[in-house]
Design a protein that fits this description.
With about 300 residues, this protein is α+β, with helices and mostly antiparallel strands. It is about 30% helix and about 15% strand. The strands form five sheets. The chain has a four-stranded mixed β-sheet with strand order 9-7-11-10, sandwiched between helices. A hairpin with an 8-residue loop joins strand 5 and strand 6 (about 75). It is rod-shaped and about 110 Å long. About 15% of the residues are buried.
């Protein structure tokens, strides 16, 4: 036999033939179909199901499928464990039950949502711990490079951007979107001696309220700003004649990145350390009147 372990022998003393679809009584004995019926009507077993007399002459004695449009009937009742209604073999495992009550539905939804919510809470706590560990590491000069790498790795894990940008050309930043569409107050500086020099650059590892993005180091600043706006869903009218324009600022000191020269390449800005990969940058609206007449010696800063 190809399937020697399939089926069981009928326990009727006069039969004992192997049945591939045996029927088992509640008393534990197994029979073929013929002797199972005989076992039930003999009255010798109190646990055996009582036989039901039926006639196929009337529809009332046939179990009709509850599925809408189905006309199949069965001699044996097969109840759904949710709505307690009979369904045929074809519709036995129907995907949804219209009779499920709101309380049961809410319980099932909670069973599915609870693990996801627990993961989100655990991940939030983990990110807070990582941020705090990076801050502590930055207090030690020896650990600054490691902390910076971890910060950049966190940005890379969640960064989004154009898939057409080759991986080797990608540079990563954390972007803070504009709080409102109103133009922000700006400080204009033409004398570099009046610019407050930052002696030590401190990394802020907290990525809260930022969107991690990547762009190409070979793009111009204008194209980078357009890509960031598209990725972060920021309204961008830089190519229109409007009274407000978008510009890119360092969150560290509010410095505007090349406000008048938008064709400068990102690679050049990074090589001159005007931007560092992993920087937190701010996209903000400023008045177009401020940009009119700017030269290369004019610097703009966001006023806090």
């Amino acid at each position: 036999m190809e399937f020697p372990s399939l089926g069981e022998h009928c326990q009727n003393e006069e039969c004992k033939q192997k049945d591939f679809l045996p029927l088992q009584c509640k008393c534990g004995k197994v029979f073929c179909r013929e002797h199972f019926t005989e076992h039930c009507i003999s009255g010798s077993c109190e646990m055996a199901p009582k036989p039901r007399e039926f006639s196929l002459k009337t529809d009332d004695e046939i179990f009709r499928c509850t599925e809408k449009g189905c006309k199949k009937g069965n001699l044996h009742e097969m109840l759904c464990n949710k709505c307690n209604k009979h369904y045929c073999i074809e519709h036995r495992f129907h995907p949804s039950c219209p009779e499920i009550d709101d309380e049961t539905l809410a319980t099932k939804i909670e069973q599915y949502e609870a693990p996801r919510r627990q993961f989100q809470e655990a991940n939030k706590h983990l990110q807070q711990k990582i941020t705090e560990n990076i801050r502590k590491a930055l207090q030690s000069t020896a650990k600054v490079k490691t902390a910076t790498k971890i910060h950049l790795m966190r940005i890379k894990q969640k960064a989004s951007g154009p898939k057409t940008v080759p991986v080797g050309e990608r540079v990563y930043f954390a972007i803070r979107k504009p709080i409102s569409a109103e133009p922000k107050p700006i400080k204009t500086v033409t004398d570099l001696e009046n610019v407050k020099q930052i002696e030590t650059v401190s990394l802020d590892p907290d990525l809260k309220d930022t969107v991690p993005v990547f762009v190409s180091r070979n793009w111009s600043l204008g194209r980078v700003l357009d890509s960031i706006c598209e990725t972060c869903n920021i309204k961008n009218d830089n190519n229109k004649s409007v009274n407000m324009k978008l510009r890119l600022f360092r969150q560290l000191d509010g410095y505007c990145i090349s406000p008048s020269k938008m064709d400068v390449e990102m690679g050049e800005l990074i090589s001159k350390e005007i931007l560092l990969e992993g920087d937190k940058l701010v996209v903000e609206y400023i008045s177009d009147s401020i940009l009119n007449g700017l030269d290369e010696n004019t610097h703009l800063f966001l006023l806090s």
